[in-house]
TrEMBL record:
PANTHER family, A to Z: FATTY-ACID AMIDE HYDROLASE (PTHR43372), FATTY-ACID AMIDE HYDROLASE 2 (PTHR43372:SF4)
Source organism: Drosophila busckii
Highest taxon in the source lineage: Eukaryota
Protein name, as recorded: CG8839
Keyword Transmembrane helix attributed: yes
């Protein structure tokens, strides 16, 4: 589709919107100055990496374990030591099962030593045998905490594994730790009244994102080789971006959401939610997704080679000026241009084309409307543990005197949720139609052999609590959830503020393999995950 059919960025902009954007920009600049004054220079330093095992991908570790170059026990103990080193500073891990994991690692080593299976058979049947894995505190792991950051669930433990984790266990992975989330997983900073706040490994004054923020942080600090996340508005991709790792939101309804809390209120909401893989290395995503997708893996054709020289690359640098959404940072715009330059040099100018889809300006409104359903329940029901609606106004009064067990942002989100358009209203139908039109446009644009490269977020990791001043910035990821497309967050090194840069790569339904292939290409070109200090 030619650029001119899509690029409407030069259309006239109403004066009121221009003035509003200008004022919002001034406020953003003012608040950024205030937060810099509050937090000062960069936060505390992480302990350096002294164990080379921590620098390996999960795929590499699995290969070395089954080939007896490393033992599962050895690998597990390395990551447990690393968690104990970094967690007092970062607060990313909130529960552990080290003793049970150790027994399972011993069993994995004994299976390998028994000779019952060849290394080739293990690679086929148990591709991650003996590799430690983590997940967030809203994806159930039998016997571990299952709180979703909600105080009312502070003592709840999972009775069984989530289906995605059960499949990873069947493939040989060993759960050993649980990671922090935002309250009920509906905010993009990981902080709650059960476990507290998680801090960014690159700058402890910055956020780790949410709701898979503890997971992203744990991996970026080299305290876990890989893990599972979940994403209904960007909860895999934003933490992957803020923590400089890879994260993939699969195509809708490919990976089971069974074992996730809170559960969606409707079948359509269930299609927006996606459990997906997170890792420091792009090569881990494909085999993880193959396992997690279970019987639906065939839909994705992940083993089919991707010929990148035949892929069409579209890119869009901003959302076009969404209301109450921050402008894209200069570092991120420069990163996009570096990607464009690399792709054009390697694959040719004709294959890389700029687009500007004007509907992206309404991403937040479209997401909020499409999240509505006919259950009559909203975020205040989730804060009530899916058992009752909390009295949001009363809880806010209690919060002001330190008596509420909810976070300020959780209560604010519930109040904002109550103000959104209602399911079945004319505005609701209008915005659902907008989503459908945008979905059709993107399907036509992407076909079965193209990707869209788009910012994961308009700014690099903000300071703690700063998201309150820019709550709608999640719209860059949220819009992809309600469209249902797969998207991979790809790290691009560190920017001028010393925190990660990145983009997301979007493809058509069930064309996840294109996202993953482009992620691997960008990792080769730009280095991927930036390791913490290493002293071997």
């Amino acid at each position: 589709m030619p650029e001119m059919q899509l690029d409407k960025s030069k259309e006239s902009v109403p004066l009121s919107r221009s003035i509003g954007a200008f004022i919002f920009g001034l406020l953003q600049t003012f608040f950024r100055i205030i937060f810099r004054l509050i937090y000062g220079t960069k936060g505390e330093h992480m302990p350096p990496i002294t164990d080379p095992i921590l620098l390996e991908s999960a795929t590499s570790l699995a290969k070395k374990i089954r080939n007896k170059e490393l033992s599962s026990v050895q690998v597990l103990e390395s990551f447990i030591r690393r968690v104990k080193e970094v967690n007092p500073l970062l607060n990313c891990v909130v529960d552990e099962r080290y003793d049970d994991a150790h027994k399972e690692a011993v069993a994995a080593d004994e299976l390998i030593k028994s000779g019952t299976y060849t290394a080739e058979q293990l690679a086929e049947q148990k591709p991650f045998l003996g590799v430690p894995i983590t997940t967030k505190d809203c994806i159930s792991v039998k016997g571990m905490l299952f709180t979703a950051g909600l105080y009312a669930r502070r003592e709840v433990r999972a009775e069984k594994d989530a289906e995605a984790m059960a499949l990873m266990r069947k493939a040989g992975a060993i759960p050993f730790a649980l990671t922090n989330v935002s309250e009920v997983c509906m905010w993009w900073e990981s902080n709650n009244t059960v476990h507290g706040r998680t801090r960014n490994a690159y700058d402890t004054n910055r956020i780790v994102g949410g709701s898979s923020g503890g997971e992203g942080c744990t991996q970026s600090a080299a305290a876990s080789p890989f893990g599972l996340g979940s994403d209904i508005g960007g909860s895999i991709r934003m933490p992957a971006f803020f923590n400089g790792i890879f994260g993939h939101k699969p195509s809708k309804l490919v990976v089971s959401n069974d074992g996730q809390f809170p559960t969606p209120f409707s079948a359509e909401q269930n299609s927006f939610l996606g459990l997906g893989p997170m890792s420091r290395f792009a090569e881990d995503l494909r085999p993880m997704l193959q396992i997690m997708a279970g019987e639906k893996a065939a839909l994705l054709r992940l083993s089919k080679p991707v010929e990148l020289e035949r892929v069409k690359f579209y890119y869009q640098e901003t959302d076009g000026g969404g209301r109450m959404v921050s402008a894209v940072d200069a570092d991120l715009l420069q990163s996009m241009q570096r990607i464009v330059q690399h792709l054009r040099q390697k694959f040719g100018h004709a294959q890389v084309e700029r687009v500007q889809l004007p509907e992206f300006r309404q991403s937040a409104a479209i997401w909020f409307a499409n999240m509505r359903d006919d259950s009559g329940h909203g975020f205040s029901f989730q804060l009530g543990d899916l058992r009752y609606e909390i009295n949001t106004y009363l809880e806010m009064l209690k919060w002001m005197v330190g008596a509420s067990k909810h976070t300020f942002i959780g209560l604010t989100t519930a109040l904002m949720d109550n103000q959104q358009c209602q399911h079945g209203s004319s505005k609701y139908h209008h915005l659902v139609a907008k989503r459908d039109a945008l979905r059709q446009t993107l399907q036509q644009l992407l076909g079965d052999n193209a990707v869209l490269i788009y910012p994961t977020h308009p700014t690099v990791a903000p300071y703690h609590n700063e998201p309150i001043m820019r709550p709608i910035n999640f719209s860059y990821t949220g819009i992809i959830n309600v469209l249902g497309f797969p998207a991979t967050a790809v790290p691009l090194g560190l920017g001028s503020e010393g925190v990660p840069l990145g983009v997301q790569v979007i493809a058509n339904f069930n064309e996840d393999r294109l996202c993953l292939a482009v992620a691997e290409e960008l990792e080769r070109a730009f280095g991927g995950w930036t390791r913490p200090e290493v002293r071997l």
